[in-house]
Amino acid sequence: MRRDDLPKPTDSELEILRVLWNRGPSTVRDVFDTLNESKPTGYTTVLKLMQIMADKKLVRRNEEQRAHVYEAQLPEEQTQNQLLGDLLHRAFGGSASRLVMRALSSAKTSKQELVEIRRMIDEMEDRAK
Amino acid sequence: MRRDDLPKPTDSELEILRVLWNRGPSTVRDVFDTLNESKPTGYTTVLKLMQIMADKKLVRRNEEQRAHVYEAQLPEEQTQNQLLGDLLHRAFGGSASRLVMRALSSAKTSKQELVEIRRMIDEMEDRAK
DNA sequence: CTTGACATACGAAGACCTTCGTATTAGCAT
DNA sequence: ATGCTAATACGAAGGTCTTCGTATGTCAAG
Asked: How many CA atoms are closer than 13 Å to the CA of A62, on its beta-carbon side?
């Protein structure tokens, strides 16, 4: 039943995935235009990366149109979980609380965000009863 | 005043760093013995990695003894911050609360840990006043 | 002093990542 | 049809990471 044994995306691949999550299904041209604004890059570079990602099944590709349409294979949340779990295991020895506390203490978190996080903790405690 | 522009350690390098953090200053033999228990590897592989890490300044090396003694350059907390900040930026668009909430919801966190996290949030809110 | 155990240094292979140039093909306007 | 634009396919260079074999050096025991 495993649908989740995809390779961990590299940094460049993750940039592309983020564009696809934000835009939804997109052509190479779409992704290139978006990425090129912040970070100058070559069109064929993006194309090649996306072709490789299709080989790896990180993205799905629809070839009906001349300009193929790409779509992230996994939803954003699932990939975030994957990367977070990986870091949790690799750098924190599996201790989620240490990870969370470090994230809270190092990154500046707004009051509003703190409220939301507290609410989530409340819910978890309730459910854990 | 920058003391923090070290390269992000790779997966293998992080494994070695974790041994050094746990054991304190150690020889290649020490690290090899530790790693080899969980994951069969070659002695010279570990040696080479640690030499490269010394070049990159990820570790400091004391050559007074015949068996050189290695020590992590940065404390564990600082490297965790670095990796977390990197992931935060790369996969969460800088939203710390989304990262924290995802970590909380996906990893199972004990009641005791939840209490600690809540206390930390309290402190942050106090300080933010 | 010779040998054996064990240390570092070094080179190189193989895998992957990123980048880009070039070739080829598809569609459209003239 | 011809040619222009824009798309995909492909190969290869250059970099990094990981692994390991081999060479070399050092120390101590016999």
From this structure: 11
